[in-house]
What we know:
This protein has 4 helices and 4 strands; from the N terminus they run H-H-E-E-E-E-H-H. It is α+β, with helices and mostly antiparallel strands. The relative contact order is 0.10.
Amino acid sequence: MFFTVSPEDARQLARHTLPELGEEDLARLGAYEAACRPIVGGVATPAFTLRTDAPAPILGMAEQIRAEATGRKPSPALPSAKVLRQWLAEERARAAETEWGEAA
């Protein structure tokens, strides 16, 4: 099964869908369209195109996420950004000392 492919890829893939579908057919598939050449019982059947359904929109998730996040504070178990920056600076300094041959 192929969804829209580049013209270069279509040249290579058309051998799998000929004679029913050629290079242009593969390169010009629209949104939610696909080309298919199923193998049934070990035998290749004629290629065809099909349309798929667009995915259903996910409604309400943004509002739900905002509602759950409102009023929350960072977990006390997690270090603050300031602590992380300080730790990173110390690690970089330690790495620089080691890189220059000084004792860590």
